[in-house]
Amino acid sequence: GPFGQLFRPDNFVFGQSGAGNNWAKGHYTEGAELVDQVLDVVRREAEGCDCLQGFQITHSLGGGTGAGMGTLLISKIREEFPDRMMATFSVVPSPKVSDTVVEPYNATLSVHQLVENSDETFCIDNEALYDICMRTLKLSSPSYGDLNHLVSAVMSGVTTCLRFPGQLNSDLRKLAVNMVPFPRLHFFMVGFAPLTSRGAHSFRAVTVPE
Question: Which locations, inside or outside the cell, does it occupy (predicted)?
Answer without folding.
Answer: Cytoplasm, Cytoskeleton
